[in-house]
Each structure stands twice: as C-alpha cells, then as structure tokens.
Write a structure and sequence with these properties.
- The chain is mostly helical.
- It has one domain.
- It has 3 helices and no strands.
- The longest helix has 26 residues.
C-alpha cells in the first residue's frame, strides 16, 4: 500500500505543477496585476523556469505564446512515463500490493 501512496504522491505533484502553469497563463490575461507581490512573484518564478525552456524554441505567434501548450503536453507525457514506469518497477520487484 505504501508504494501506491508514493505513486499517487508523484502524480499529484505533476498535477499541482500543471495547475500552476494554468493559473499563470490565466493571470497574464488580467491587466494591472501586481507581479511583485509575494504570491504572484513566487508563482511566476517557479513556472517560468520551466516555460523558458520552451520559449527558447517556440516563438510567439502574434500576441499568443504557444510555449505553455507544448510545455503542458511534455509534462503530461513525462508524468505518464514516470508514474507507469514506477508501477512497472514496483510490480517487477513484487512491492505492489494485490
């Protein structure tokens, strides 16, 4: 049972980060938001570290930044690889409960 909780915790971490990307994108549509406040600055800095990797290769199309879409797809694929890999590994080691 502990192994299932570990796998769920890993998956939940990915979901939280995906939610943070979504909230960051929604907040860019609100004009006049104070990005210097602690919460918004922490959100921006933690998400932009990941998004900047994709902004190097994906230029904006007019006023639209498509890098969050590609970053989200890559994060979902990475989540699936890690979670299903962990399930396979734990099952192979006999650590997964029936």
């Amino acid at each position: 049972m502990l192994t299932i909780k570990i796998i769920e915790a890993i998956a939940n971490c990915f979901y939280v980060y995906l939610l943070m990307i979504f909230v960051r994108c929604l907040l860019t549509w609100i004009p006049g938001i104070n990005w210097d406040s602690f919460i918004f600055k922490a959100l921006r800095e933690s998400v932009d570290i990941y998004l900047d990797l994709f902004r190097k290769f994906i230029p904006p199309v007019g006023p639209f930044d498509l890098s969050p879409i590609v970053a989200t797809i890559v994060l979902i694929v990475l989540r699936n690889v890690i979670v299903y890999g962990a399930i396979y590994l734990f099952a192979a080691l006999g650590l997964l409960g029936n």
